[in-house]
Structures are given as C-alpha cells and as structure tokens.
C-alpha cells in the first residue's frame, strides 16, 4: 500500500440504523466507510456507536446547533448529528491526512456536502482552532485512548469551552485500565464532568443500531463542562 495516496485503499461500508424505542417508523440509517488496510485501518469503534446512540436519542436538541467532533476518524457520531439537523464540523489531526480524507468520505457516503472537515491537532492552538465559529456541542468518541494524549485532548477542550462557556463536551470512552484517570487533569484545566448512565439513553446493550457493537466492551459516557465554581467564590 502506498501511503502517499497513489493507490485506492480497500473500503467496506458498515450500515447503522438507529430507531425510536416506541416507534420503529422513526429511524435513521447511515453508512460509514471503513478502511481495511491493516497499516492505517480506520474502523467504527464501540464508543462511537454508544455516542451516536446518545445523539440519536437527543436529536431534538441538535437542530440548528453547531457541533464539532474531535478525532472524528470514520465520523459516525458527527454524521448522525448532521443527519439530525446539526451544523457539523468534523476534525482529526492535521498530521493525519488519511483520517481527514476518511471524514470527507463519510460525508460523501451520507450526502452531507455542507459538513466542514478541518485538521485540528490536539494540544495545538492553531489558526483553524482559533477561528472556529461559536460552538454548542463538542463530541469525542474514544479520544481518551492513549494516556499520553489525555492532556492534549483536554487542553483543546478547555480552550474551546473557555471560548464557548455554555458549550458541553459529550464523550464516550472504553475502560481499558483501572489505573487510567483524567480526574487530576480536569482539576488542572478547571473542568468538571458528569457521568451519564447508558441505560438513560438505551445504550446498555451488547448490540446497538443493528450492529455487533459495542459487544462485550465496557463503554462509559460523560459530559465535560467548564468548572465555574471558583468564579462564584
């Protein structure tokens, strides 16, 4: 495989169908391209399906809201948000053009020509980051994957929340080690989080959206906001 882009990667499309619990006639089907090359494979991870389920269950809150997805990769949550009426910006590392290409591919597969794709590298205050429009919601699916990236993710989130004090960061993560924690980093960057129980949005299942995910993986969700308590003292 030529990673300079001279060959077309092997792509498979995975279909997800989100349904209303009480009325199956209300549904949303999206198609997500997965890159199968093992050297830079981009797949739908369990966390993405759980976060997308949360977006689907809160779709009435998304209409006309401006939503940014960080580390979008195959972009399932961002695509669902856009299909639910949000104004979506997809982003992934500016150093990973293949990921940005896949964001665009996901938009094409779901007829979303107006979704903007940007290169935003965690921990870097770039011109593209500074020039983002006013945000209502920030999304992050499995962005807390490598401990060495945790602070860079929260630096970016803290910067965006300070610019948009009413915004929220909706994120899902997979439990991989009991030793990994962001609690100290949240305190350092003046952020706070609230855990969201999966049963509250019908995601406490092995299978979601007609897929085999999240399977037996333990996925958690939290909402991170600015900690304004210090300002009130």
Task: Give a short summary of the structure.
The protein has helices at about 45-55, 75-85, 95-110, 125-130, 150-165, 185-190, 230, and strands spanning about 10-20, 25-35, 65-70, 85-90, 115-120, 135-140, 170-175, 190-195, 220-225. By secondary structure, the protein is α/β, with parallel strands linked by helices. A hairpin with a 7-residue loop joins strand 1 (about 10-20) and strand 2.
Enumerate the spans where pLDDT stays under 50 for 5 or more consecutive residues: 1-6
Estimate the helix proportion, in percent.
25-40%
Structural class: alpha/beta
Dominant shape? globular
Number of strands: 9
SSE order: EEHEHEHEHEHEHEEH
How large is the count of helical segments?
Answer: 7
Write down the overall mean pLDDT. 92
Q: Biggest sheet, strands in spatial order?
A: 5-4-3-6-7-9-8
Rg computed from alpha carbons, rounded to a whole number of angstroms? 17 Å
Largest sheet: 7 strands, mixed
Measured distance between first and last alpha carbons: 58 Å
What fraction strand? 25-35%
Question: Which descriptors apply to this entry?
Answer:
two-stranded antiparallel ribbon, alpha/beta, 7-stranded mixed sheet, 25% strand, 26% helix, 233 residues
Description:
- It contains 7 helices and 9 strands; from the N terminus they run ββαβαβαβαβαβαββα.
- It is α/β, with parallel strands linked by helices.
- It has a 7-stranded mixed beta sheet with strand order 5-4-3-6-7-9-8.
- Helix 5 links the parallel strand 6 (137-141) and strand 7 (168-174).
- The longest helix has 14 residues, at 150-163.
């Amino acid at each position: 495989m030529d990673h300079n882009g001279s060959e077309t990667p092997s792509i498979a499309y995975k279909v997800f169908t989100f349904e209303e619990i009480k009325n199956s006639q209300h549904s949303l089907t999206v198609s997500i391209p997965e890159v199968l090359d093992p050297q830079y494979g981009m797949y739908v991870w369990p966390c993405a399906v759980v976060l997308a389920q949360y977006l689907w269950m809160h779709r009435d809150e998304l209409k006309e809201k401006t939503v940014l997805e960080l580390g979008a990769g195959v972009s399932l949550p961002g695509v669902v948000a856009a299909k639910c009426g949000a104004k979506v910006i997809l982003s992934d590392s500016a150093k990973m053009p293949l990921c940005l290409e896949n964001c665009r591919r996901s938009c094409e597969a779901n007829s979303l020509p107006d979704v903007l794709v940007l290169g935003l590298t965690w921990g870097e205050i770039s011109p593209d980051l500074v020039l983002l429009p006013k945000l209502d919601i920030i999304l992050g699916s499995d962005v807390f994957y490598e401990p060495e990236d945790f602070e860079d993710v929260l630096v970016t989130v803290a910067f965006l929340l300070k610019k948009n004090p009413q915004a929220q960061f909706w994120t899902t993560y997979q439990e991989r080690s009991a030793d990994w924690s962001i609690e100290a980093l949240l305190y350092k960057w003046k952020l706070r989080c609230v855990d969201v129980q999966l049963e509250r949005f019908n995601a406490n299942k092995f299978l979601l959206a007609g897929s085999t995910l999240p399977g037996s993986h333990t996925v958690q969700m939290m909402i991170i906001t600015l900690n304004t308590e210090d300002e009130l003292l």
